[in-house]
Structure prediction request, 282 residues.
Amino acid sequence: MKLEKKRILLFLIFILIFLTPLSILYSKSENTFLLTILMLTPMISSLLTRLSTKEGFRNLNIKPDFKKNWKLYIKAYFLPPFLMIIGATIFFLLFQNLFNPLQSKYAINLGVVSDSEYSLKLAVIIPIAILINPIAGLIQCFGEEFAWRGYLLTKLVYVFGERKGVLINGILWGLWHSPIILTGFNYGKENSVLGVFAMILFCIVIGNICSYLFLKSKSVIAPTIFHASLNAIDLYAPASLFMRVKPNLFIGPNPVGIIGGIGFIGYSIFLCFKYKNLNKMS
Prediction:
């Protein structure tokens, strides 16, 4: 137990060593390539922790076992857009005056002039985006999931138990995002401090889903797929597709908002009741 706590602390120190300079550089340049590098540093931090504490490289939790878990991987791939649609639908039902597809950023870029034309284009573009876009983010998301779920979560669950370990994991993951959120990423520069708290809550919700997928499959591949699919939503976010005015990012319709993310919140709560039966699952 004492050694595992030491490994947790050392991992977090390595995380900060990488996070500090990269977040400073990003704040000055807002070069998104730095974010790609940053997403790989948790994996490097976990490997350095293994080396420093002589833990070795067993139990890396990367074996996918596709034969056993293929249904779970398909679910992880398509669950984010499905939950996103739920949240966006509820948002636009509540705020119908904000639904203005033809005046949206995406429609203007496409140069469409009618609802039918735009609908036809979206009917082609969105399914392709759902299928293809996550692939581009798999490596970066693996860099995060390899460490946050595949390494740190296993330690936290051992020390604190399953439920508390998953919660702490989500909080730490959210705090790790904080320096980038303070630059205005996700929630804008006007309310960046409030954005930090919103991001921590968002990471608790998403981290719970990723943790469940990891514990269920015993592999980082499932949460990596989910994470990449979630990040890919940025390329076809509801606000860009259906709104003319700038959205309130704390509310919706994008998943980082409380209403836009209601599908993720509901599913995360649902999973909380399944942890006690997780070891009984086939």
